[in-house]
Amino acid sequence: MHELSVCQALIGQVEAVARGRGACRVKSVRVRLGPLSGVEAPLLQQAYPLASAGTLAEASQLVIEPAPVRVKCETCGAESEAKPNRLLCKRCGDYHTRLLSGDEMMLMSVELVIQETPDV
Amino acid sequence: MCDTCGCNITPGNRKHAYTPVQGTTAVSVLKNLLAKNDEQAAHNRTHFDHHGVLAVNLMSAPGSGKTSLLEATIDALRDEFRIGVIEGDLATENDAARIRAKGVPAHQIGTGSACHLDAHMVHEALHRFPLDGLDFLFIENVGNLVCPASFDLGQHRNVTLLSVTEGDDKPAKYPVMFRAADLVLITKSDLLPVLEDFDPLRAQAHVRNLASEAPVLRLSARKGEGLAAWLDWLRQELGQQRARVAAGKTARPKVQPDGAALHAEY
User: Fold this and answer.
1) Judged by CB atoms within 8 Å, which residues 121-140 of B form the interface with A?
2) Rounded CA gap, A60 and A52, in Å?
3) Cβ A105–B258 below 8 Å, yes or no?
4) pTM to 2 decimals?
5) B35-50 and B258-265 helices, crossing angle to 10°
6) Where is average pLDDT lowest: A41-55, B3-17, B125-139, B236-250?
7) Are B32 and B150 in contact (CB under 8 A)?
């Protein structure tokens, strides 16, 4: 439900990067999203055209790269895949695990158009 | 972490870094989407620390008993500590009025249609809410088991309430929220005898499945049952906060956002 406000924050960051590099527009934006971030990829996609309208990122493509849920066991040291609501070690079943991946909500990269190339 | 010196570029993400292609440039950023909120939250936290206040964020579904818990807490601690409350609701001043009726300063944030508090709203409220002399600042978030978990407000600790009328599998259904909890309170425990479906141990097992060691306490604010353990937790946390402040340190809630994690590891 809060994806629009997250998306507005994303656009703010994208515009700051684009302005800082003198870009005339943004071509694509790459975001890494884990299920434990609390943000849903489809909702973020839906919010993106709204949030980017009238900005340097208007009509750019949002690429969402899903982050798998992975944990490292503090007890046996094994690394394993996990479910968002079951972050147990797959090898020994212990709950003393540390999340390696799965709660990301990261702006990874931005593809900028520095100079519009004339259409050929 | 910053996006100017390249310290955020690691072997794992280097492939995203600067690769100019025909008038376009790919720029790696690696910034938490909520970095702006997190910066504001850090500012709020500094403000709390400066005043030696322990800031506790209360989160739960609507109607789990956050305000009732605060009322009971104020009654129990009024001679021992000074308490302030920031209330978040979509509309009405009802909760702030309930707190003020207990003789405690309260500020109501009306979020309009926003489903959560964010660091900027809390910062705005702090301009109108003096912290001088306070020991505890409770921030009662908007009743919602989803969105509030994603926004750092600058609090030191997160407390998530689960009332026994809700079902003991809530932590499995809302893992983002319950993973964020430093303490889980099972509330309205006086109703347990008539709610046979709710098994507090099963609720606790669901919390453990989230790799969380957060204490799970049972209490009834209305009947005053089980309050002692909650009050002891608060006293202990306040003691730790005072020691941290004296040592020039601070504390964040257990779950660290990406930005902080990245900075620590690389």
Assistant:
1) none
2) 8
3) yes
4) 0.86
5) 80
6) B3-17
7) no
